[in-house]
Amino acid sequence: MSPREIFALRDHLGTALTERTISDPRHVVSLAELPRGSCLGGRGGELDGRSVLLATSGQLLAGLALIEIDGVARRMLLCPPDLKDEHLGSIIAEAGIDAIVTDEPQRFAGFGIDLVIPVGLPQPATQVAPTVRATEWLMLTSGTSGVPKIVGHTLEGLCGAIIGDRPAPGDALPVWATFYDIRRYGGLQIFLRAIVGGSMVLSDPGEALADHVARLNARGVTHISGTPSHWRKLLMSGSAEQFAPRYVRLSGEIADQAVLDGLKQAFPNASIGHAYASTEAGVGFAVNDGLEGFPATLLGEGRGAVDMKVVDGSLRIRSKRAAHAYVGRAAAALTDADGYVDTGDMVELRGDRYYFVGRRNGIINVGGLKVHPEEIEAVINGHPEVRMSRAKSRRSPITGGIVVAEVVLTADSDPARADAVRNEILAECRARLAAHKVPAMIRFVPALDVTPAGKLARADA
Amino acid sequence: MSVRLRIIAAIKQIAEEQKVKLPPLTDELTLHETGFDSLAFAILVARLEDDLGVDPFTLSEEVTFPNTIGDFIRAYENVPA
Predict the structure, then answer these.
(1) Quick one: A367 and A300 in the same domain?
(2) Which of A72, A101, A283, B67 lies 20 to 30 angstroms, CA to CA, from A361?
(3) What average pLDDT does range A3-27 have in this prediction?
(4) Are A166 and A14 in contact (CB under 8 A)?
(5) Nearest to B42 among A398, A426, A430 (CB)
(6) Is residue A198 one of the residues assigned to a domain?
(7) Which residues in chain A have Cβ-Cβ distances shorter than 8 Å to B65?
């Protein structure tokens, strides 16, 4: 029996490479440069069998290097931009890192790793390391507190939702963009889609939103993804008017009806889909009917690549696209005995659809009654003059906590109507929510923080 | 507006929001008799903290929760400035 053929990302590059590019605000790299070039100075072969930390200051070098490292290294850990230096040591130890690819070698001088390979833009190379193994891909979870967990994936699993979705021969090649960083699961999904059959326009954290949108236009972006928080920011900025993508995708947070409707209005000719995915569970499903939530018929086993069920209110997913393990000495089990990942995302069945109500660990406790901030935000965001909102707990000597909300109004909302809007929001909350879920106070704020992972910041929730 | 009047106004506002029918608010009325549940009191204390800048029930562990409207108002009036 011959060993199973191994494919690395470089073997999935597809065709028409000369027409395809990866770009950021400063550089445009043709995919045609990749098979004959190296961004590691031709030293990729030194990573054979190594456990590599890929830590670059920007996304472009990370994207180029991971194509070169996959298929060579034993494992490759994608270092997200917001990883704190204080967590580096333990992550390097837990992942057994013995080589580093970086454009910031001084940052990694103190970790006792002797193989540090600098990374730069691709240069023609005489030697390109061949595909010899299926590299394990390690990603970090985006939890806001404590050391991030290390999650192990394979390229096959990461591409599970993508390969069947390739553009048909003769179709115009998609130009992908994402507000995510590609070293996060949601962004990596988009990057991989571009690599197997399109072009990629990377985001840059230092770039103003209007400049970013101008660049998306200049590069002809047709397909674009982000979290609902990313999209609310774009809708709020007024920059969306100049932009006309064909496909708009939301993931990473609950897509409520207000943001779906807002996008439909802003991009009347685009198809708009929201996807459910997590670093651990992989891509679960995509919903393209323009409605929040997902059809209950998606639940069940043996219907396709993904099995799903709801236990104790939380969505459980079993899938070849899921990660295979948490990595590290004291790593917890990723799945239950039946192979299901508990996503921690709580859902509620109403009619023939399930609706996301919030994170299990984000619950606000009001005198013993549980409240998901997201269910309150969904009601508030339904007001036509509200762009985004955050519900959170405020400490109370009586009930432990009460719900308060911060609200960002749309750009065209009349400030003189603030009191009227507040009363309308509260009336809607009283009509649709139990008394303990109605915000005790509503404060209007100019903006709400979004984390580097694109999610509404809930650090104080 | 005095502390007393602000507290009475806040109680009436919350009663309206929570659809609670208040009896006449005398100093002797027990908090139980107001018809407020713990959620309504929690909202009241939070709003008064924003309005008056003080939450006497969190400030000191020695303060016990008052029995009557009069006790409740005095808890705010007696907070050292």
Answers:
(1) no
(2) A283
(3) 88
(4) yes
(5) A398
(6) yes
(7) 397-398
Say if residue A156 is in the same domain as residue A188.
yes
Q: What is the pLDDT of residue A459?
A: 63
Residues A415 and A316 in one domain: no
Mean pLDDT of chain A: 92
- Domain range spanning residue A372? 363-444
Tally of domains within chain A: 2
> Which of A316, A347, A378 is the last residue in one of the domains?
A347
CB A366 to CB B17 under 8 A? no
Instruction: Please list every residue in chain B whose beta carbon sits closer than 8 Å to the beta carbon of residue A366.
Output: 39, 42
Predicted model pTM = 0.86
If asked whether residues A80 and A194 sit together in one domain, one would say: yes
> At residue A1, does pLDDT exceed 50?
no
**CATH number of A68's domain:** 3.40.50.12780
- Which of A313, A347, A381 terminates a domain? The answer is A347
Contact (Cβ atoms closer than 8 angstroms) between residue A101 and residue A73: no
* Measured distance CA(A408)–CA(A406) in Å, rounded: 7
CB-nearest to B38 from A394, A395, A399 is A399
For residues A326 and A334, the answer to whether their CB atoms sit within 8 Å is yes
Tokens of A85: 């230096």
Write out chain A residues lying below 8 Å of B43, CB-based.
402, 440
Residue A455 lies in a domain: no
H or E segment to which residue A197 belongs? helix A185-197
Percent of chain A with pLDDT strictly greater than 70: 97
Strand A116-118's sheet: what is its strand order?
A116-118, A99-102, A51-55, A75-78, A136-140, A150-154, A325-327
- Report the pLDDT value the prediction gives residue A373, as an integer from 0 to 100: 95
Q: Tell me, yes or no, whether A272 and A411 share the same domain.
A: no
Nearest Cβ partner of A396 from B17, B46, B50? Answer: B46
Q: How far apart are the CA of B71 and the nearest CA of chain A, in angstroms?
A: 16
My answer on whether A300 and A379 are in the same domain is no
Residues A117 and A259 in one domain: yes
What pLDDT score does B81 carry? 55
Which residue out of B18, B43, B61 would a mutagenesis test of the A interface target, given it has the greatest number of A Cβ atoms within 10 Å? B43
Q: Report the interhelical angle of A209-218 vs A228-237 (nearest 10°).
A: 90
Gap from B43 CA to chain A (nearest CA, Å): 6
Query: Which one-letter amino acid corresponds to residue A281?
Result: A
Chain B contact present for A434, CB below 8 A: no
A265-294 residue pLDDT tens: 999 999 999 999 999 999 999 999 999 999
Beta partners for A460? none
Interface ipTM > 0.90: no
